[in-house]
Amino acid sequence: MGATERLPLLARSNHRCTGRRAQHIAGALAALTILGTIVYLICSIPPCFEPELSVTITGTDGLDNATDLIRHPTTTATTLTPVFKLAFRITKRDDCSCHSCIGGPHNKLAVSYGGALLADRAGSLVPEICADGPSQELNVTAWAVDVGVPPFLREQLAAELERGEAVFDATMTHDEPPCHSMVCPPSQPVLVCKAKIGEGLCPCTYESRYS
């Protein structure tokens, strides 16, 4: 008789366990469904590519071998006054290219050779262009007056220009005020381009420069 009375209690207990197990399984399936939906949406979004950046040195002045670079016995000039005309181009890779801009009033453009600064421009003289269309071009002129260049570097530049092998470094940095905060960015992105005069479009890349 006692055993017969305990049977209904055991049946109710099994029913509760079965109900909880079903709830846990349903919850797990719902979570997996939500996770699968999120993964599907992420995978369905096309990747965002950075636009291509390039530069062309369209013209120079003040770098003539006969009158500027090679020192003659009758010449006492030891400085250069170079002028560089550059055309930066920003090209979208596809319709999903990331929005990107170069130039602007807070940027500084510098042109150097062999580590020696030859010309620069900053502030409002460096316009801004963004990857809003298929291709945008930024024309800017950088120059300097009475730049001191070591004699060995002048001779090297003259020889490489004569062979068409002189490579100039054009960099564009964001000219930010000094950071006085407790937390300052350890580095800043710098647009670095290496180009030869009249060579056409030369690729540019971003590098991290540590302060």
TrEMBL record:
Keywords recorded for this protein, A-Z: Membrane, Transmembrane, Transmembrane helix
Name under which the protein is recorded: Late embryogenesis abundant protein LEA-2 subgroup domain-containing protein
Membrane-spanning ranges: 21-42
